[in-house]
Amino acid sequence: MAALLYRLGRGAFRRRWLVVVLWLAVVGGVAAAAAQAPAAPPDDDTIPGTELQQANDLLDRDFHANADGASAQLVFVAPDGRKVTASAYEKAIGEAVGEAANSSQVAGASDPFADHTVSEDGSTALATVNYTAVSDDLTTATKDALQDAVDRGHAAGLTVEIGGNALHTAPSEGAGVIVSVAIAALVLVLTFGSLVAAGLPLLTAAIGVGLSLAAIMALSSALGLSGSALSLGLMLGLAVGIDYGLFIVSRFREEREAGHDPREAAGRAVGTAGSAVVFAGLTVIIALGGLAVVGIPSVTKMGLAAAATVAVAVLVAVTVTPALLGFWPRAVLPRATRRKKPVAVGRVKPNLGSRWAAFVMRRPLTVLLVSVIGLGVLAVPAASLKLGEAGNAVLPTSDTQRRAYDDISRAFGPGYNGQLTLVVTAGDAPDPARAAAAVAEKIGDLPGVVSVSPPQFDERGNTAVVSAIPAAAPDAQETTDLVNTIRDHRDAIEKETGAGYLVTGLTAANIDIAQKVSGALLPYVLAVVGLAFLLLLVVFRSLLVPLKATVGFVLSLLAGLGMLVAVFQWGWLGSLLGVNATGPIQSMMPIFLAGISFGLAMDYEVFLVSRIRESHARGEDARQAVLSGFGQSARVVVAAALIMIAVFAGFVSGSDAMMKMIGFGLAAAVLLDAFVVRMTIVPAVLALLGSRAWWLPARLDRVLPRVDIEGESLSHSAPAPTPAEAHPLHTIGSPRG
Fold first, then answer.
1. CA distances to 28, 37, 210, 311 from 32, in Å
2. pLDDT in tens, 15-46
3. Is 6 left (phi over 0), alpha (psi -120 to 50) or beta?
4. What pTM does this model have?
């Protein structure tokens, strides 16, 4: 591996113009295709194998209802002391609903006075407008009609808010992403002491992200890739793209300090750090590709799109980075380095990284126990993890959808925002109408049900829809218990009435998705961790090092989940992070966090431990190898972690709840994994294990393929530089080797 990448690095350095022009041509071609491609489709909400999906399929088949179709709730509130039933207000509300329904995309609009959706105190009326299209496909004219309805209500003296999802807009990432890139640039400048060196990882990341996002947009319609895949690709592409470029540029500078000419240094940098980049990228790709085992189409597509983004980042890092180094072989070095004499490879002066490793290794057991206990304390809130979707309840109060949610809760009760829909199949009953009515009556008698609507049949009279209003809010445990109770009574009610039913709605969807994710989480983690364990086994040729890596990941994952629960579910520090309201954790979060954070955790494991093993392979004893490895890589690993944390944290300022949680969760997981697990637990465990850390059974040693990522095969790839050639000033001005 190292030899192949060594030749690739030297070739890219030598033919830098060709490499850069070819990559720019590819980016330009894909961008042109993206500009002509149809718009991205909305998120695929299908959840195969769930009761939710079965119910939605029946609604689509028998009622021709688009389960994904947008809806708007027009909430009319009369001034204090007055009632919407006053003739003037009733007339204005009727005209406003007529305005809202004035669009070809409207499937139907309700009359609050005919449908009895007026609160008992007469203060509030609720009209629902259903659309044939999803919210992203609603035309400007359709949305203008909604606004005209609001204006008409306002003109009559009513307060009017719009609930539902008709006004849903594509999520914005917020200014935080720009700030995060600026922070990443600052970290790079402080790390390298050179503006050019700092700019190279940003430039390579920009090329990789630009190509990946353009490809996602070009293929979005054909492959069904939604805006969520685009956001995830942007997040991961920036994070790994900058980090991968950082490691290769840093290694290039080391090789130059060791006396190698620019072309040789580029080859060695790609052969060593580039090998680590390839294997680290493979762990991320395995983790993201493994999301397919969840069995949810939207998750699979997001995972595969993100995996492709990481693959592009790896390819750009090992080809474009050495090519760009060929343009600025001198400028990437700090001024002090240009005046220094070269040092022998392997001689590392004591620095903060090696001193930190020495401190940990003096008290390995104490440091290990403190670190594990600290992560355990942070993981405690994870025991209270509740999965679900809070809907409009978590939006800021400045949003009309949130104000509509609150108005409905006050006027009709909190359960009105989470009505349960029962799809009753009564076609086999002697009297379908009586059977469906009996089902509605039985459901209405259950504790926790406020009211039940009369059954509404399809054209054939075989399938009916019944709405049940729970007493509690959609995300309340009482409503979850109610859904489970309704489902538990299904067999008994079917025996008594002759009609079966399926339950759907927001709370039912939360239950089904959570069960789907929970059932897939353990197989997913086992599959991904198992594959990555085998990969690390091949890379490090050790049983205990991969085992330590995976155990450390589990600790940081649980602690990251605990922090996620504390902030988004409990509300700790929520106001500082822009969390508007507490609620359940998005159902997809645990599996996204597990997959992505595992891949990124292995990044730092590969980068850090490969330098330790490299020193050990050169003959250093186990303790000195740890000190040398940390002295060579700790500063760069810390910089890489800070960059990733900054990039992920930048997405917390965005408007999309899922990306906000993913951004915070990944930032927390990287923080804990990089600084507590990799920088603290790793040296402590290696100190306790000593040379046993690199033990591998002889039989397994003969079977495993040999993969050189430390660059052992490069030791004789080029003649040692002569004293004159070795001095950086001799060759530093020329890009030719």
1. 6, 9, 12, 21
2. 999 999 999 999 999 999 988 888 766 666 77
3. alpha
4. 0.81
Q: Which of 325, 250, 255, 253 is nearest to 9 (CA)?
A: 325
SS3 content of the chain, % helix, strand, coil (to 5): 65, 5, 25
CA 415 to chain centre: 30
Q: How many CA atoms lie within 13 A of 189 on its CB side?
A: 7
Query: How do residues 93-125 score in pLDDT, each as one tens digit?
Result: 999 999 998 888 888 888 999 888 999 999 999
Do β-strands 106-109 and 124-131 pair in parallel, antiparallel, or remain unpaired?
A: antiparallel
Residue 125 sits in a domain whose CATH number is 3.30.70
**241-258 residues labelled b (16+ CB within 10 A) or e (exposed):** bbbbbbbbbbbbbbbbbb
Q: Are residues 488 and 547 in the same domain?
A: no
Angle, helices 622-650 vs 657-672, to 10°: value is 160
- Segment holding 455, helix H or strand E: none
Same domain, 336 and 417: no
Domain boundary among 115, 130, 164: 164
Domain check: are 551 and 688 in the same one? yes
Flag whether 655 is in a domain: yes
Both 529 and 574 in one domain: the answer is yes
Q: Is 538 a member of any domain?
A: yes
Q: List all residues 6 or more positions away from 567 whose beta carbon is below 8 Å from its beta carbon.
A: 573, 574, 577, 579, 664
Report the C-alpha gap between 255 and 716 in whole angstroms: 15
Please give the residue range of the domain that contains residue 329: 1-36+182-345
Q: Which of 479, 510, 541 is the last residue of a domain?
A: 510
Contact 456, 440 (CB under 8 A): no
Between 544 and 725, whose confidence is greater? Answer: 544
Nearest to 517 by CA among 570, 422, 601, 593: 593
| Distances in whole angstroms, Cα of residue 597 to Cα of each of 80, 247, 405, 443, 557 | 52, 19, 35, 44, 7
DSSP assignment string, 696-726: --HHHHHHSPP---S-GGGTTSSPPPPHHHH
Nearest to 499, CA basis, from 466, 459, 451: 466
Q: Are residues 326 and 251 in the same domain?
A: yes
Six-digit token string for 644: 């990733």
249 and 331, same domain (yes or no) = yes
Together in a domain, 461 and 410: yes
- Look at phi and psi of residue 110 and say left if phi exceeds 0, alpha if psi is from -120 to 50, else beta: beta
According to DSSP, the β-strands at 159-164 and 463-470 are: unpaired
The Cα–Cα gap between 230 and 631 comes to 38
pLDDT score of 726 more than 60: no
Cβ(417)–Cβ(393) under 8 Å?
Answer: yes
Q: What angle, rounded to 10 degrees, do the helices at 589-617 and 227-257 form?
A: 10
CA distance 260 to 276: 20
CATH code, 561: 1.20.1640.10
Give the count of alpha carbons within 13 A of 352, CB side only.
Answer: 6
Side-by-side strand order, sheet with 71-77: 106-109, 124-131, 71-77, 159-164
CA 594, CA 207: separation in Å to the nearest integer?
28
The answer to whether residue 458 sits within a structural domain is yes
First CA to last CA distance, the chain: 22
Considering the domain architecture, whether residues 100 and 130 belong to the same structural domain is answered as yes
In whole angstroms, what is the distance from residue 213 CA to residue 237 CA? 9
**Residues in Cβ contact with 240 at an 8 Å cutoff, skipping those fewer than 6 apart:** 281, 284, 310, 313, 600, 603
Count up the domains in the chain and report the number.
Answer: 4
pLDDT, tens digit, 9 for 90 and up, residues 440-461: 999 999 999 999 999 999 888 8
In single-letter form, the type of residue at position 384 comes to S
Residue ranges with strand state E in 496-582: 500-504
Distance CA 154, CA 452 (A): 32
Is residue 716 assigned to a domain?
no
Find the CATH number of the domain harbouring 424.
3.30.70.600
